[in-house]
Specification:
alpha/beta; single chain; Rossmann fold; 4-stranded mixed β-sheet
């Protein structure tokens, strides 16, 4: 399995909660205090406001980590990624849901700008796209995204939770994508499942 998310991924059309504390208290119950702690403070340049971070963690990022953990526990190989690139003109909104798709398919010419926003792609975008397409093609052919010409993409495992981060500077191997956030999400999912 190869699965991942964009840095500010969330369910399209669903705004981050207006009252984040209430939503977390309602959904996390007895572990709400621990779940609130990571979502306080100033906005993060990559992930956005605390409410946007929570929306991304609970809708795509941590659900992907949960699926990856199940997949590798069953003895299957898996690879995780996060796409961070915000194209020119989208820097303020960041890498939103599906903004990685033009890079995967090399379809920049079909990207539509939103009102009041002009999206432009440059050589950095084309380089990132070329690398992503090589990884995805390798994965489709062999079940492994790696080849000798690309930076090594480590398999996901439950200990390191290795992932590939696609940044403006290219692919960067990393570990434990928002691990403390996702661990609370997983703990809460198990708690709810035991009811």
């Amino acid at each position: 399995m190869l699965i991942g998310n964009t840095a500010r991924d969330k369910i399209p059309g669903s705004p981050p909660p207006a009252d984040l504390e209430k939503v977390i208290r309602d959904q996390y119950g007895p572990i709400a205090e621990r779940a609130l702690a990571p979502y306080t403070g100033a906005p993060d340049t990559l992930y956005g406001t605390p409410a946007a971070q929570w929306a991304g963690d609970t809708s795509f990022r941590c659900t992907a980590v949960t699926q990856l953990l199940w997949h590798v526990a069953a003895g299957n190989p898996a690879y995780e990624y996060q796409f961070d690139r915000a194209a020119l003109g989208r820097e303020l909104v960041g890498a939103r849901h599906a903004t990685d798709m033009p890079y995967v398919f090399g379809t920049f010419e079909f990207v539509v700008s939103l009102p009041g926003q002009t999206v432009a792609f440059n050589d950095v975008d084309r380089t990132i796209s070329s690398v992503i397409q090589q990884y995805w093609t390798n994965f489709a052919k062999t079940g492994d995204p790696n080849d000798s010409k690309l930076p090594a993409w480590r398999k996901f495992d439950s200990a390191s939770r290795a992932y590939m981060e696609f940044t403006d500077a290219g692919p960067v191997s990393n570990e434990g994508l928002r691990r403390s956030y996702c661990d609370l999400f997983i703990e809460n999912t198990k708690r709810i499942g035991q009811k």
